[in-house]
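[audit] Reproducing an earlier prediction to check determinism. Same input, same settings, fresh worker. If the tokens differ from the archived copy the diff job will pick it up downstream; this log only records the rerun itself.
[audit] input (125 residues):
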Amino acid sequence: MTINFSLRKVLRSNAAFSGFSGLSLSLFPYSIAHWMGATFPDILRYIGIGLVLFSLALWIVSSQKTISKKATRFIILQDWLWVLVSLLILVFQWFGLETSAYSLIGGVAIVVGGFAVLQGRKIGG
């Protein structure tokens, strides 16, 4: 069974995932930090705001009549940077987080890497 998603749908799915994650971090940084065993709720809020802005940019790019390959490549780069930083956090166990927090970081990295791969396939590179 093959599921075929358009570039527009992949970008919008990425936007929805990023937007939900960003809003969660922006609105509930203290609860999330407590759950993670983190001592930096304000940083989580800033990451959340950045994700909301990223989400809006994704939506704008995906709303164009012709989706820009250059803009999509830049989005892919940002997705891979997210994955790289996530891997560094996992490998070096930075921030002394709870095991469940590291698991969540790894899971999110897999999802974001999936978006990067799908977007790359849709633009042919």
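[audit] rerun output stored. Observation attached for the diff report: The radius of gyration is 15 Å.
[audit] end
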